[in-house]
Write a structure and sequence with these properties.
Layout (H helix, E strand, L loop, with lengths): L6 H33 L3 H13 L1 H12 L3 H25 L5 H4 L3 H22 L10 H22 L21 H4 L3 H33 L3 H13 L1 H13 L2 H15 L1 H9 L5 H4 L2 H23 L10 H21 L1
């Protein structure tokens, strides 16, 4: 079906699905903020788990669909390229928060801990690559380790939230996570109804992700562009748009912990794309089927995550360009990675 469509129709389908993902992500932010207040779980945890996983749904559909089609590079680069792009979004969001460096105001132990968990998860594919190409049911053992590490990180993160052994120093600029007062119309909506609305948006986003995967694969074939470039710089950016939207909207709403937690938590969840892709890829280990260009994006994501986590700990008040120094570094590193990717892929 998809290979019979013209390039114009494929581009139209890709753009239409992108618009759906954009506006769905916009609506999700407000719902997540209200659910954080209703459930008492806090913006950092809700942002990291619920919002992070929900906005990643379209991305995981892209990776699974690509892997099922035997396109290992597209599935892999879409996963890790999205992590790098979404980390960049915090630097962009920092530009929208003019009071002080975003990482200073949004200091939260839960976000710092999730950043560390993310770095651990990003090292596992390198462990798979450097180990023998051994599989169980055509799935590399590292893929089974990914969800275990993720689950342990969630449990430990909940403990960090409820019983922290240390807390960030409060300053005048620190944004405290406090529930907001709801108006009468908002209070009339039950928590169950909010969750159902959130679930409906997730379904819509997942459908858009499938369209993105199919149209992008065919466009790559028709144009001759490498899957690693399409995955890291096309599908990854488009499916990451909800994170950009939700992050900027959350910052504008003053939900700073939700913004930072949504990015770090979403990135942590995105590592599970690799497990899902490895399971869907039936020709052996996904980690051994991809090339250096794909692993380059894991290295980039790992470097950017380390800088972001360091920024959350350092808590610089103001950088040289009215944004944090770590935000400037993230912008430079990502721009450099894009340039290198095109040079390698050319």
């Amino acid at each position: 079906m998809w290979d019979d469509l013209s390039t114009t129709i494929l581009i139209g389908a890709f753009l239409a699905a992108s618009v759906v993902i954009f506006f769905t992500g916009l609506r999700m932010t407000g719902l997540a903020d209200r659910l954080a207040d209703r459930t008492g779980l806090g913006e950092a945890l809700i942002g990291g788990v619920l919002l992070g996983a929900a906005t990643s749904l379209s991305g995981i559909i892209v990776s699974i669909t690509a892997a099922l089609d035997g396109r290992a590079s597209l599935a892999f680069s879409n996963s890790v390229g999205g992590i790098a792009a979404q980390t960049l979004f915090l630097a962009i969001a920092d530009m929208f928060y003019r009071k002080i460096n975003l990482e200073h105001a949004a200091a939260d132990l839960g976000n710092v801990f999730q950043g560390i968990v993310l770095m651990v998860l990003l090292t596992l594919p390198f462990l798979a690559l450097s180990s023998p190409e051994f599989t169980i049911w055509a799935v590399h053992p590292v893929s089974f380790a990914l969800p275990l590490v993720y689950a342990v990180g969630l449990v430990a993160g909940r403990t960090v939230h409820e019983e922290p052994m240390w807390t960030p120093v409060d300053t005048q600029e620190t944004k405290i996570d406090q529930p907001e007062e709801e108006d009468e119309e908002s209070r009339a909506q039950s928590t169950r109804r909010l969750f159902l609305a959130f679930g409906g948006l997730m379904l819509l986003m997942g459908t858009a992700g499938y369209v993105i995967a199919k149209s992008a694969s065919e466009l790559a074939d028709k144009t001759g562009i490498a899957d690693s470039i399409v995955g890291a710089l096309a599908t990854a950016l488009v499916t990451s748009m909800p994170e950009l939207v939700t992050t900027i909207v959350a910052v504008r709403r003053g939900a700073l912990l939700l913004a930072v937690g949504g990015i770090i938590g979403g990135n942590t969840f995105d590592t599970l794309f690799l497990m899902a892709s490895d399971i869907a890829y039936r020709d052996g280990s996904l980690y051994h089927a991809v090339g250096d260009a794909d692993y380059y994006w894991i290295s980039t994501a790992l470097l950017m995550t380390g800088i972001l986590t360091g920024g959350l700990i350092l808590r610089q008040r103001q950088g040289p360009a009215r944004i944090g120094a770590e935000s400037i570094l993230l912008l430079v590193i990502y721009a450099g990675a894009v340039a290198v990717q095109f040079l390698v892929g050319a």
